[in-house]
Amino acid sequence: MTVTPLGIPRRLLEFTLDGEPVRAPEGSTILDACRAAGKDVPTLCEGDTLTPKNACRVCVVEVEGSRTLVPACSRRAEPGMQVRTGTERARHSRKVVLELLASSVDLSTTPRVAEWLKEYEAKPDRFGPDAARVNEEPKVDNDLYVRDYDKCILCYKCVDACGDQWQNTFAISVAGRGFDARIAVEHDAPLTDSACVYCGNCIEVCPTGALSFKSEFDMRAAGAWDESRQTRTTTVCAYCGVGCNLTLHVQDNEIVKVTSPHDNPVTHGNLCIKGRFGYQHVQNRD
């Protein structure tokens, strides 16, 4: 039986969304309201367990009276607000952002990007073969996870998850400026020499696959990774008494990675090193 927490009731705000009157709980973002109304507004940097960073600007919408387009992921809904999500101006902005991202980094493992490129008729190739690309080799310096910054869009979600929003380890930060800006650890050292505690919460929030399980990285390289053949089973971690929920991703009767439900009141998607990576004993056949 699913138990829904009652919480404190929130006052409903009334405003207009694409010409239709809608209601949203006080404190909701425009993106929350769009999703509740069944409107598909694309976003890359938004995460349901983190404070919005407004980094990718793919979710911009038009608000009457606003001089510029506003990010739907962070702009709070206001009474009487008039929001338009599919105007020519908003769609053109999303198209250009998608083109700039896809021309500079590898978005091949980013969910739904191929669909959005087609929907907005984005053509990353129009910048020509001389367009600057990140072109970094994956950093494989441990047995747990891989950092492939050629896929990084600098959404800062890993920095926030490692910092004061969740883990408080502060092993990850941004180094460099402009096009040379990179996600890095202290002095760009190997991960094994950093303050990283290998909780993997940065992997949980990464939207592009720039951070991934070593098991997933190896299987993708071998052409064996197939999410259509994977099952997901949520269980309780057996390492301690906290009661963290684990979602086991299983392919061909082998656990290939572990995540955690974001709506779980204990973990909110976060785990420790044992919960996220300590599953090998389960499938030891010796």
Automatic annotation (TrEMBL):
Domain 4Fe-4S Mo/W bis-MGD-type residue range list: 230-286
Domain of life: Bacteria
CDD domains: fer2
Alphabetical list of InterPro entries matching this protein: 2Fe-2S_ferredoxin-like_sf, 2Fe-2S_ferredoxin-type, 4Fe4S_Fe-S-bd, 4Fe4S_Fe_S_CS, Mopterin_OxRdtase_4Fe-4S_dom, MopterinOxRdtase_cofactor_BS, PSI_iron-sulfur_center
Keywords: 4Fe-4S, Iron, Iron-sulfur, Metal-binding
Keyword Iron attached: yes
Residue ranges occupied by any 2Fe-2S ferredoxin-type domain in the UniProt entry: 11-89
Occurrences of domain 4Fe-4S ferredoxin-type (ranges): 143-162, 188-216
This protein's name: 2Fe-2S iron-sulfur cluster-binding protein
Organism: Streptomyces virens
